[in-house]
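Marked as duplicate of an earlier ticket. Keeping the data here for the record.
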Amino acid sequence: MSGGIDWGMELLLERPERYRVKRGQTLAGIAAVFSTTPRLIAAYNHLSGPPGEGELLLLPPAQNCYSVGGGESKRLLCGSPERFCERNATECFYPGQTIVL
């Protein structure tokens, strides 16, 4: 061991395919942890309301998330409006929105 670093420790950064909701968690909180959007998690799981404690959610594949700025467009960020809708499970688009690129 050198410099206070334990070289015997191994960091694993695997992303699970499923996630079990814990008490008090929201889609927004879960989405932030797994670098996705609440709307995409809801679409993947056909949710019509908030998830319940203990519910097993499918997680969408890892994505590049981005916060929309003023003057940007669906075409600029995703190539086309159709591709934006497909990737984000919505037609909504506004500054400050977190989207999948």
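See parent ticket for discussion. The mean pLDDT is 88.
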